[in-house]
């Protein structure tokens, strides 16, 4: 059975690993040339939806744990952006999305509490994808 939460965690973990280690995953399919050095791995729509869901859950857990600090408003905006990306890709109803987010929040919170996941790493990766630096402070990316 496909679990979008697990898949999103895997995608996010992979992106976190690659960004932390400076590595770049590259595929070299038979007739095609290898991608240029430093090229980002291409994500499918499903990967992007999973990633958006995990970022939504990441921001929910950060806010629920009271860890937003001075960035609380920026985090809320980035969370809304991640949710809208998920909604656009999945084409699901608001009720279905809210139910999936509730499950994702619970799963991520449990994995954070058990030490399986480092919430700060996940937040840093989501911030790098959904926020821009403005005067040293992360702000949501507006497209």
Give the H and E element order. HHHHHEE
Report mean pLDDT, rounded to a whole number.
78
- Total of DSSP H or I helical runs spanning 4+ residues: 5
CA(first)-CA(last) distance = 34 Å
Globally, the shape reads globular
Helix/strand/pairing class, anyone?
A: mainly alpha
User: Care to count the β-strands?
Assistant: 2
Q: What's the story with the biggest beta sheet? A: 2 strands, antiparallel
What fraction, in percent, of the residue positions are helical?
55-70%
Low-pLDDT parts are 17-31
Strand arrangement across the biggest beta sheet:
1-2
The whole-angstrom Rg is: 16 Å
- Give the DSSP E fraction (strand runs of 2 or more residues): 5-15%
Short description:
Keywords: Signal. This protein has 143 residues and is mainly α.
Structure notes:
The chain is mostly helical. It has a domain at 45-143. It is built from five helices and two strands. The protein has helices spanning 4-21, 45-64, 72-90, 94-113, 119-130, and strands at 131-134, 137-140. Strands 1-2 form a two-stranded antiparallel sheet. Helix 1 (4-21) packs across helix 2 (45-64). The longest helix is centred in the middle third of the chain and has 20 residues, at 45-64. The protein is globular. It starts with a helix and ends with a strand. 25% of the residues are buried.
Tags for this model:
143 residues; mainly alpha; two-stranded antiparallel ribbon; 5 helices; globular; signal
List the helices and strands and how they pair.
Blueprint: H1 4-21, H2 45-64, H3 72-90, H4 94-113, H5 119-130, E1 131-134, E2 137-140
Antiparallel strand pairs: 1-2
